[in-house]
Amino acid sequence: MYSKNIANSYIPNYLNRYIQAKKGNLDLLKNNYIYWNEVVYVVKNRLKEIRMREYLMDQKAFAEMLGIKKSTYNTIELNKVQGNAETLLTIAKALNRKVEDIWYLED
């Protein structure tokens, strides 16, 4: 499990912006949209694709493998929320991937 004091270098720049937005340091954040310098970015993930193609598991089994609650996993996979930095890193570590290989910005 990752420490809660995570160095920013482990998190891609756009996710740092997302985290800062949640702290109120960006122009505006609504749901999974980041408004940065008048450009709208949508944070998306590849979790369903990874789960279905590589693991062939349902959400419950996949969440258990990742070490998170199914309800938490469901909301993240469906892009309803992105989760906190600790959860993102926990998922990336369990999948043996970089965070930026799972989450990306779409504008």
Automatic annotation (TrEMBL):
The keyword DNA-binding applies. GO terms for molecular function: DNA binding. Keywords: DNA-binding. InterPro entries: Cro/C1-type_HTH, Lambda_DNA-bd_dom_sf. It holds the Pfam family HTH_3. Residues 47-102 form the HTH cro/C1-type domain. This is Putative DNA-binding protein. It comes from Clostridium botulinum (strain Kyoto / Type A2).
